[in-house]
Specification:
The longest helix has 33 residues. Helices cover 90% and strands 0% of the residues. The N and C termini lie far apart (59 Å). It has 121 residues and is mainly alpha-helical. The protein contains four helices and no strands. The protein is globular, with a radius of gyration of 18 Å.
Length: 121
């Protein structure tokens, strides 16, 4: 594979990735909630003037939640592609993926609380 092919392949892969993120933003209700929360936390961080280290922690938390939400969407769509009928294993796959998002979102709330609460109290 020559340089041009690799470069083209990278550009194509990047385009696919952007398409996936855009799909999540447009079609997934929970992703829209996470984006609204991201905007709110960003405004709060700017108003509170949190430190660079605190911003980094917030960015990691946001990135983790949004990434897992995209993975959750991919798993749900793959399961739906295989079967639209109820199957206990399909349910487990969807529930576990959703659980991963729930854990990350819960930890992110705890992280946010540990950052913002000391500024207010």
């Amino acid at each position: 594979m020559g340089y041009r092919e690799r470069k083209y392949s990278f550009k194509r892969s990047f385009g696919y990735a952007i398409t996936g993120v855009w799909y999540g933003l447009k079609k997934e209700r929970h992703m829209q909630f996470h984006i609204a929360a991201t905007i709110s936390v960003t405004i709060l961080g700017l108003l509170t003037r949190i430190t660079l280290a605190e911003w980094r922690t917030i960015w990691l938390s946001i990135g983790l939640v949004i990434s897992l939400e995209l993975v959750n969407t991919a798993i749900e769509k793959c399961v739906d592609l295989v079967t639209q009928e109820y199957h206990p294993i399909a349910k487990i796959a969807k529930d576990v993926a959703a659980g991963a998002v729930l854990v990350a979102a819960t930890v992110s709330v705890l992280v946010g609380g540990s950052i913002f609460l000391p500024y207010w109290f």
